[in-house]
């Protein structure tokens, strides 16, 4: 099974591959195609994609994303083939650590490729409509004077230098500024699932309050026990978990400071 470069013409065929609950995956692959930090690939049969996936590159780490096999072509080894192709496309000297977020369906495939479980994400949702929420104190719109501080905070929490992808989404961010004028948290609503990275619970909770006004779902590491407690006290219920998996050297990261992840493709 030989993988090929994913092209713009392939986007029209993606609805046939969409797993249940994923929603429209076409915007994701449109982003992969236009971003210099991403490399989407496919396996074809009869001129149409039957398996797809992508690699997303940060400074010295990579994430595997949207590894999907057409429902009528499962149990043919396509998931393993596309995963192997993605791993083989990564320069492991430059990107020694590779991550992914595994569904129950994909988990056995990734174990066979050498990935190990590093942690779990809790997936929560709120059934009731959110009440009107006032803008919490100490929250400000992002401005350029906060850019470097936001990069530093993200690196301290994630253990990854994600500036290449993060840069374009900061313009729309909200930040939490403490009494000393220091940035203590950032919420990036237009970056996939709307990540919240914060140095303190006070910053994390204030930014979660803003996010919850428009987002009925939340995903954060199980290790953030205070964040989970806050969400459950505010009407969110956990309905599933997924596994954060790693291939290669482990990095120091702080899941207790991630109050919502970016996405399953970025951590």
Secondary-structure blueprint:
Blueprint: E1 4-5, H1 26-34, E2 38-45, E3 48-57, E4 61-69, H2 78-88, E5 97-102, H3 107-112, E6 116-126, E7 139-141, H4 147-158, H5 163-166, E8 174-177, E9 183-187, E10 196-198, H6 201-212, E11 217-221, H7 225-233, E12 236-247, E13 258-260
Parallel strand pairs: 4-5
Antiparallel strand pairs: 1-2, 2-3, 3-4, 5-12, 6-11, 6-12, 7-8, 8-9, 9-10, 10-13
Can you describe what's shown?
- The chain has 267 residues and is of the alpha+beta class.
- 24% of the residues lie in helices and 30% in strands.
- It has seven helices and 13 strands.
- Strands 1-2-3-4-5-12-6-11 form an eight-stranded mixed β-sheet, with helices on both faces. A five-stranded antiparallel β-sheet has the order 7-8-9-10-13, with helices on both faces.
- Strand 2 (38-45) and strand 3 (48-57) form a beta hairpin.
Largest sheet: 8 strands, mixed
Helix content: 10-25%
Q: What distance separates the N and C termini?
A: 29 Å
What is the H/E string? EHEEEHEHEEHHEEEHEHEE
How large a portion of the residues is in β-strands, by DSSP E?
A: 25-35%
Please state the overall shape, judged from the principal axes of the Cα atoms.
Answer: globular
Mean pLDDT: 93
Q: What structural class do helix, strand and pairing data support?
A: alpha+beta
Using only C-alpha atoms, the radius of gyration works out to 19 Å
Name the strands of the widest sheet in spatial order: 1-2-3-4-5-12-6-11
**What is the oligomer described by this structure?**
single chain
Total beta-strand segments: 13
Tally the helices: what do you get? 7
Uncertain ranges: none
